[in-house]
UniProtKB/TrEMBL annotation:
Protein's name in the database: STAS domain-containing protein
Compartments where located: Membrane
UniProtKB keywords: Membrane, Transmembrane, Transmembrane helix
InterPro entries: SLC26A/SulP_dom (IPR011547), SLC26A/SulP_fam (IPR001902), STAS_dom (IPR002645), STAS_dom_sf (IPR036513)
One Gene Ontology term from the biological process aspect of the record: transmembrane transport
Organism: Gasterosteus aculeatus aculeatus (three-spined stickleback)
GO cellular component terms given for this protein: membrane
Length: 698
């Protein structure tokens, strides 16, 4: 047999950490924050406007051509998308152009990412549209987009009654009579202002950690479910159907039901135009993907389709001859700024929260992803400030909520973008359209805009093909994706986000309540201990059970910990103690001759004398976990089994010390806690050998 000697553990002393009083820490921070000096003011300004820091160092000859190329290309892509996504947001096309212009200018001044393209994003447009249509429905407007219209101030009709006593329905807002178009952009602007305020407050209070609760599978499923909702909402335009957008839950189901119920009213002109547009757009995308190594710049497929469709609609007079819905008049120039309606904000406080969270989550994650790819760093808190002001300031100029957009960011990265000068160039392209070319899109059919939106969803909808691979890689992640996607598509976008967050957190809690547990064995000739079920050629230490629990130990899983431990070692202390007490009572009733046999039953030995808890996979414990350890030591001690702890991290040790697990002044620490499993096993074997020697002497 291997000779066992008691090994003295190495002398490891914890560093004495002196914590300063909270009051003094608070005073020093306040003093530092209110101190004003020229260098501090300069640092604050350059931090708030990073452009002041990097623009003087701009390498003109090296960077300018890449920035010009990427800026022009993104601007060309941006114009048709800005007009198209207004269908989702429920506002007129001009507001999409305003939003794209102002967002690019502000992010140029305040953003820290060189490659992110901030502007209109389909998901944000959908969520804004949901709120806009809901509020317009409650205000009594007719949601049919082709209802009678008038000028910019007094437009549209009530639910069920387009005309009441010869007057179109209006709502009083800030002392003025506001029609359908006016009311829709007022809602969108007020919502956008609130979103920006939330984002700035989150940056001020360092609440960026909220994004950690948005797991990648959850965000992926949310985007896919929202894409399916976007496709559903736009499907009516492909067929030229006059169906109001459904309000409430189950938009996807109700909308498809309405589409099939009214499919006999399909406008053949819109249907043919949609088929041709989708064919050209998809063909362009496929050519782009197949020959992306040979093509130096992306194909401007959307612009070609928009230009061709506009010319065909204008000269073919498709609106008057075939009743095809068109974009209508898009004015040139800028509207005067207007303060968002504070009377509307009281109804939009809750609606703005999911938009704020999703907007900053996508922006920060995209900026960090492309910064890592291109070898520089970004400041997440400044990114939150930047996207917040990209919403606050434009809300005074008739704009709606913005975010970083993946597709346009990838285009910028692939076309040689070097700095945010490219955003300035994209804004100038949009400015040219606003000043000179906006009225040219009057005859552009809405079905063409819907085709642009739907084809842009190809990437998100292709995620369905990845479900089997996700399932093989991680069933938990695949389940989170499926649940979030289903809730977003079948219930609503807002509830889908909530369901996704809570379900992903529930999955984490469920995994900590049902973690992997194992008994460990020793590898021959070493002090390495590993799972007996997972590895071969391991030997369990004689009469010592080594147990590993791979999860934090806290109030929610302490019962799971105890059950798994009892099952693994094959002994439950309370039941074992009950058996012994029953045997003792039975022995007392027997004759004195049988008492000896009874005592033998009472004092029978178990297959082990020590349990070593390998705590290397326990990141933390709470007070309930400490109490569980205390009860475990006490219960097993009553049946003659010692419980030792090994490989605890410092946070677990601190929690045990605060809970006085090691007794007063930690007097039992050296006999209960060991740095490695092997040291604990050697100590247990030595202690058992000494105990047997004492019994023999007795």
């Amino acid at each position: 047999m291997e000779e066992v000697n008691l090994v003295t553990p190495p002398a490891l002393e914890r560093r004495a950490r002196r914590r300063q009083p909270a009051v003094s820490v608070l005073k020093s921070k306040l003093k530092k924050s209110v101190t004003c000096s020229v260098p501090r003011v300069r640092s604050a300004l350059t931090g708030f406007f990073p452009v002041v820091r990097w623009l003087p160092k701009y390498k003109l000859r090296e960077y300018i051509w890449g920035d010009l190329m990427s800026g022009v290309i993104v601007g060309i892509i941006l114009v048709p998308q800005a007009i198209a996504y207004c269908l989702l947001a429920g506002v007129k096309p001009i507001h999409g152009l305003y939003t794209s212009f102002y967002a690019n200018i502000i992010y140029f001044l305040m953003g820290t990412s060189r490659h992110v393209s901030v502007g209109i994003f389909s998901l944000m447009s959908l969520m804004v549209g949901q709120v806009v249509y809901k509020e317009m429905f409650l205000a009594g407007f007719d949601l049919n987009e082709d209802s009678p219209a008038s000028g910019p101030d007094v437009v549209n009709a009530t639910l069920g009654n387009n005309l009441t006593a010869g007057k179109l329905h209006t709502v009083e807002l800030m002392g003025l009579q506001c029609g359908k178009e006016c009311y829709s952009i007022s809602i969108a602007a007020s919502l956008t202002f609130l979103v920006g305020v939330y984002q700035v407050l989150m940056a001020a209070f360092r609440l960026g950690f909220v994004s950690v609760y948005l797991s990648a599978p959850m965000l992926d499923g949310f985007a896919t479910g929202a894409s399916f909702t976007i496709l559903t909402v736009q499907a009516k335009y492909l067929l030229g159907l006059k169906i109001p957008r459904h309000q409430g839950y189950g938009t996807v189901v109700v909308t498809w039901f309405n589409i099939f119920a009214n499919i006999h009213q399909t406008n053949m002109c819109d249907l043919i135009t949609s088929a041709i547009s989708i064919f050209v757009l998809v063909a362009g995308k496929e050519i782009q993907e197949r020959y992306k190594d040979r093509l130096k710049i992306p194909l401007p497929t959307e612009l070609i389709v928009v230009a061709g469709a506009t010319l065909a609609s204008h000269f073919g007079e498709l609106n008057s001859n075939y009743g095809s819905s068109v974009s209508g008049h898009i004015p040139t120039g800028f509207s005067p700024p207007q303060v968002p309606s504070f009377s509307l904000m009281s109804r939009l406080i809750l609606d703005a929260i999911p938009l704020a969270v999703i907007s900053f989550a996508f922006t920060v994650s995209l900026s960090e992803m492309f910064a890592k790819k291109n070898g520089y760093t970004v400041r997440p808190n400044q990114e939150m400030l930047a996207i917040g002001f990209c919403n606050i300031i434009p809300s005074f100029f008739h704009c709606f909520t913005t975010s970083a957009a993946l597709a346009k960011t990838m285009v910028k990265d692939s076309t040689g973008c070097q700095t945010q000068i490219s955003s300035l160039v994209s804004a100038l392209v949009v400015l040219l359209v606003l000043l000179f070319f906006a009225p040219c899109f009057y005859a552009l059919q809405k079905c063409v805009l819907a085709c642009i939106i739907i084809v842009s969803l190809r990437g998100a909808l292709r995620k369905f093909r990845d479900v089997p691979a996700k399932w093989r890689a991680s069933r938990t992640d695949a389940t989170v994706w499926l649940v979030t996607m289903s809730a977003t598509a079948l219930i609503s976008v807002e509830l889908g986000l909530v369901v996704g967050i809570f379900f992903s957190m529930f999955c984490i809690i469920f995994e900590t309540q049902n973690p992997k547990v194992s008994l460990l064995g020793r590898a021959s000739g070493s002090d390495l201990y590993e799972d007996l079920d997972e590895y071969e050629n391991l030997m369990p230490p004689p009469r010592v059970q080594v147990f590993r629990f791979q999860a934090p130990l806290y109030y929610a899983n302490k019962d799971s910990f105890l059950k798994s431990l009892y099952k693994a070692v094959g002994v439950e202390p309370f039941l074992e103690l009950t058996k012994r007490r029953k045997a003792e009572k039975k022995a007392k009733k027997m004759s004195s001759k049988m008492v000896v046999i009874g005592l033998g039953l009472v004092q029978r030995e178990l297959a082990f004398h020590t349990i070593v808890l390998d705590c290397s996979a326990i990141p933390f414990i709470d007070s309930t976990g400490t109490g569980t350890f205390k009860g475990l030591v006490s219960e097993f001690k009553e049946i003659g089994v010692s419980v030792l702890l090994a490989h605890c991290n410092t946070s677990v040790i601190d929690a045990l010390q605060k809970g006085q697990f090691f007794g007063k002044d930690d007097r039992d620490m050296s006999s209960l806690l060991f740095h490695t499993v092997h040291m604990a096993v050697l100590h247990a074997s030595s202690a058992s050998a000494e105990g047997k020697s004492e019994d023999c002497l007795v």
